[in-house]
Design goal:
alpha/beta, FAD/NAD(P)-binding domain, D-Amino Acid Oxidase, Chain A, domain 2, 8-stranded mixed beta sheet, about 30% helix, binds flavin-adenine dinucleotide
């Protein structure tokens, strides 16, 4: 491979956001002639993630959905809340299926070149962005990168910072015991550690499910601690002894939950996307739908040679809501957990999901807030006023 090879578009990072962007580019008639380079240190599809999201059934990658749930359940300290989903359904896609399909599509397409190498950094040179890799440097009119944190990342303002960290097991049980139509979204009726702590359980069939132990806290746990908690949960809640199930897959993750305003540009001509671009919702960690929404916009801009969308994924209003809730999650965990419960108890699941997807109107949001304890929010507004009243 020669250095300084030129492309129209470079996608640096072939995870959820890089592959999604590539997928939308390959669907576009108007971009058929663009030469695209996809770079990642590992271009082998991996079975490392399960991406959950909700949609109305018209999701562009519907055919890759692994399982869909029509009902959700949330368990608080005192009650179990069940809700049928009428507007949107809860889905999951496995990263193995997603990356296999898109990478295969890329390999068959003459428009795309793939290089497996370490990305070292980005610069710009005149009208082009340049990516520096173990295989040399490559330039393009636009580079979209999800591999590296922007250079001044750690200097950007960040008052609230938690990690959403988790370990999950996919299990097969000897007995049929799950309802594959209903996902347990959050079970808070467990020992709360130094941050909001819950389990979720996504049944794929009557005897298989993904069960995950999740915490919103500053520090991760040891592998042994997650595993012990999972084992205890299956034993206490489902009366499953070790011999009653087989672990068929493990999944671990750490997702940032921060009020940081992520830099949109790594440098001129190099746009940050995915988690590196701040697409992760600060209070939930959900990113997958937001990646799709933003990649659709990017491709529209590329098609019409229009300026790229380089504003934060969340509007000011939703950034304020996230800051308020994140403050409670970090400083008043018990209140925050109670508010999660109230949110689902006092509103329909359909409305809550639209709210979390940032699709609600102000009047719907006021109606949601009017049903929640408001004193904690007043406190968080007061404590975070320097952010909220200065553009969030
Ligand atoms: C286990 C897990 C489960 C998740 N589940 C959900 C979910 O259910 N719903 C949801 O909405 N969100 C979920 N998320 C959050 C988010 O959707 C994912 O983290 C998503 O993968 C983020 O996409 P990304 O493109 O930003 O990053 P990634 O998917 O991590 O992609 C980054 C890519 O860059 C490559 N890379 C990194 N550094 C280099 C380098 N130096 N050189 C070359 N390549 C490099 C990596 O190999 C990787 O392929 C989950 C996250 C994890 C970790």
């Amino acid at each position: 491979m020669h250095s300084e090879q030129q492309f129209d578009i470079i996608i640096a990072g072939a995870g959820a956001s890089g592959l999604t962007l590539l997928w939308y580019i390959l669907q576009s008639e108007k971009l058929k002639k663009k030469r695209v380079l996809l770079i990642d240190k590992n271009l082998e599809p991996t079975d490392s993630k399960t991406w959950c999201f909700w949609s109305d059934g018209n999701h562009p990658t519907n055919h890759l959905i692994h399982h869909t749930w029509n009902e959700l359940e949330v368990i608080t300290k005192s009650e179990t809340i069940n809700g049928a989903l009428t507007q949107k359904k809860y889905h999951c896609i496995r990263s193995l299926d997603y990356s296999s399909e898109i990478l295969e599509l890329a390999k068959l397409n003459h428009q795309v070149e793939l290089i497996e190498t370490e990305i070292q950094g980005f610069t710009n040179s005149g009208e082009k962005g340049v990516v520096h890799t173990g295989e040399g440097s490559f330039s393009a009119f636009w580079i979209f990168q999800s591999a590296l944190l922007p250079p001044d990342f750690h200097n950007s303002v960040c008052d609230l910072s938690l990690l959403q960290h988790f370990t999950g097991w996919e299990i097969e049980t000897t007995l049929k015991m799950f309802n594959p139509d209903k996902a347990l979204l959050m079970d808070f009726n467990v020992a709360q550690r130094e941050g909001a702590t819950f389990f979720y359980l996504l049944p794929y069939s009557e005897n298989s499910a993904l069960v995950e132990y999740t915490l919103f806290s500053p520090d991760t746990l040891s592998e042994e601690e997650y595993e012990n908690e999972l084992r205890n949960y299956l034993s206490n809640k489902y009366y499953l002894d070790k011999k009653d199930y087989t672990i068929t897959r493990r999944e671990t993750g750490v997702v940032p939950m921060e009020d940081r305003k992520y830099a949109q540009w790594y440098c001129e001509r190099v746009l940050n996307i995915g988690t590196a671009g701040g697409f992760t919702k600060a209070t939930t960690g959900y990113t997958f739908s937001r990646i799709h929404d933003r990649c659709r916009l990017i491709v529209k801009s590329l098609e019409y040679n229009a300026p790229l969308p380089d504003y934060p994924v969340s509007s000011y209003r939703f950034r304020v809501y996230d800051i308020m809730m994140l403050y409670l999650l970090q400083h008043e965990t018990e209140q925050a957990v109670e508010i999660f419960g109230q949110l689902f108890k006092k509103n329909s699941f359909d409305l809550v999901l639209r709210f979390l997807n940032e699709e609600t109107s102000i009047s719907e949001e006021l109606s949601i807030f009017s049903k929640l304890s408001y004193m904690p929010f007043f406190r968080s507004i007061y404590k975070m006023k320097h952010r909220i009243f200065l553009g969030a």
